[in-house]
Every structure is written in C-alpha cells, then in structure tokens.
Specification:
Largest sheet: 9 strands, mixed
CATH class of the largest domain: Alpha Beta
Number of strands: 15
Low-confidence stretches: none
Order of helices and strands: HEHEEEHEHEEEHHEHEEEEEE
Strand content: 25-35%
Shape: globular
Number of helices: 7
Strand order of the largest sheet: 4-3-1-2-6-5-7-8-9
Mean pLDDT: 90
Distance between the termini: 73 Å
CATH architecture of the largest domain: 3-Layer(aba) Sandwich
Helix content: 10-25%
C-alpha cells in the first residue's frame, strides 16, 4: 500500500509554493456532479461530445483549461451552470466572467464551440456572485486532494455563510495542478492561486484583512503571469499590501538567458486613481529553493522544480495623474 502523501512531503522538505500557478487564457468551468473519474472528463456524467471537445483542445495545445465544478446543490438541480472566464487584454485585474445556465450537460460542447468561435449567445445571465472560489477535491486524481481538499471545502462553505459573503460562491473542482499544495484554490475572476491553506489564511484572503505576510505561506501566484514572474508580483504585494489587489497589472519578460537562469522582467500597474507605474526586475534561478520533488502521490520519480528569486528590483517609470482643482 502506498503511504506516500505528496502534500506532506512538500511541507517536510520546505518547498516554496510561489510560481506554481498555471498561466492560462481561458477557463471553462462545467457543473457536473461527482464522483469524478481520475481523468475528470472520463466521468460517467460527461457526454462524448464534451469529452471529444476537451481532447481536441488539448491536442491543439490551446491555452484553455476545462474543469468540472460542483457544489452541494449540483446533484439536485435540473440545469447545468457554465462559467467561462477569459483573460483580459492589456492592463487587467484578471479575467472576465461569462455565466450561462444550460438545460443539461449535453448542450455544453456545442455551446462552447460557438462561444470560442466568437458567436456569443444572448443567453448570458447576470448574477450577484462576483467571486468564484474553486477548491480542488479531486481525490480520485490525487489522494491529497481528498485528504485535505474535502474537509477544506466544507470549512470554506461554512465560512462564506458565517461571514455573510453572499457575493462569493465556493465550488468543488477537478484537478487544476499543484495537488502537493493541498488544500489548493483558485480565486476567480482574479485568477490568483493559493495552497497549503488554513482557516485563518483563507479568512484573510476572503476579507483582504490581516497580515499581508500570509502571502509568503499560501500564495502560489497569479495565473495571468508567466510562472517565473509570479515571484516578482508576490514581492510587490508584500510592498504595497492589500491595496495591490485593486490594481490593474500587465507583465512581460524583456529578455532571458539561454539557460533560463536569468530573466529580465517588467511589471506595469495602474492604481485606482489612474497613475501608472512600471517596475523592472532581474530574476535569477534560486539554487536554495530549486528542489527535486515528487509532484503527486502516484509519481514514480522526482522532478526538478526551478524557483526564481528577485535579485534586484527598481521603479523604471511612473506617470502620476494629477487633478487640478
């Protein structure tokens, strides 16, 4: 019997979780009651047309992430929620949400194809939910997500109720990477990833209060940025505090060495008053945090996970908006 738990191992070796968010342009979230198969789209309620569409998109290596989601009502209702989150162009605070209610899951594949071809249906609905938090509970894919994700899902739903956060929804989700950081979550529409969550840290993230240093423990990174740049964004969160989460941001890699050990990066942001700032940084491979790790409970061998450090950081430009009285 395999008693290896990847999440316990990651904690024991002191792996730094920053830089592990998936850089993704589009999330397609499909409500589907569990239990889910190890490969989520092999699950019994997933129709063949949807399974084929996901395989087609994966073969084409499109930057689209399909996930199954569910909550405690999913098995009781006669409709399927479809959420499509698309990365915004230029300076942005994350993703734009499109929400649809379909009669059943059989309609999803055709609907998504039309949407991706630019035929946006007029059946989009407005809801008072402005935040969707996905918690991976996909235990058939990795047992750490059952062990840590399930209990955290129940805690999270209770917390939303207790804090009267009626604009936040909590969803169970199929695997979105990083199960060795379980319990792990994606906070949409921002698209920020968190891991090794506990109750206090989660409450801080929900309410944007408390010690900003919690990002050192639980922040996996922002999915709108390349993984190497996620350490730079974390550095700026620690400098600017919770206000940073209200800024619009764009990031780019200016140049990188052939061995990828050194990266020059730029992160531009606009604050709510309209002032524009650009930080540049030199990122270097962090030998002390680059580890060999088993990425999942079933991994046969370890793989090297490269981590970066901010070697230098400077304000490259600023354009402050001034209002004349």
């Amino acid at each position: 019997m395999n008693t290896f738990f990847c999440a316990d191992n990651s904690r024991q070796i002191g792996e730094d979780i920053i830089g592990s968010a998936t850089n993704c342009e589009t999330y397609i979230l499909i409500e589907c009651p569990p239990p889910w198969a190890s490969e989520a789209f092999d699950s019994r309620w997933v129709p063949n047309n949807l399974k084929n569409l996901v395989a087609e998109v994966n073969r084409a290596k499109l930057p689209i992430r399909f996930l199954l989601i569910a909550n405690d009502q999913s098995h009781k209702i006669d409709q399927t929620t479809l959420l499509i989150y698309q990365k915004q162009v230029g300076l942005s605070s994350g993703y734009q949400k499109h929400e649809f209610k379909l009669a059943n899951i059989e309609q999803v594949a055709e609907f998504v194809k039309k949407f991706l071809w630019g035929t946006v249906p007029d059946s989009e609905i407005d809801t008072n939910f402005t935040r969707d938090i996905l918690i991976c509970t996909h235990g058939s894919h990795d047992k750490c997500c059952a062990r840590y994700g399930n209990s955290f899902y129940f805690y999270a739903t209770d917390t939303i109720t207790n804090l009267c956060l009626d604009h936040v929804r909590i969803w169970r989700s199929s695997h979105f990477g990083g199960h060795r950081f379980a319990p792990t979550a994606i906070d949409l529409p921002e698209g920020r990833y968190y891991g090794v969550l506990n109750q206090d840290y989660f409450q801080s993230i929900l309410t944007r209060t408390g010690d900003i240093q919690c990002f050192n423990q639980v922040y996996r990174g922002w999915g709108i940025l390349p993984s190497a740049m996620q350490i730079l964004e974390k550095e700026l969160i620690l400098r600017h505090g919770w206000d940073w989460l209200n800024y619009k941001v764009a990031g780019r890699i200016i140049e990188q060495s052939l061995d990828n050990n050194t990266i020059m990066a730029e992160l531009t942001f606009e604050n709510p008053s309209g002032s524009l700032y650009a930080y540049q940084a030199k990122l270097v491979k962090d030998e002390t945090k680059t580890l060999e790790v088993k990425s999942s409970c079933n991994a046969q061998k370890s793989s090297v996970v490269v981590k970066y450090a901010v070697a230098s950081l400077w304000l490259a430009s600023k354009k402050v908006v001034s209002y004349s009285v």
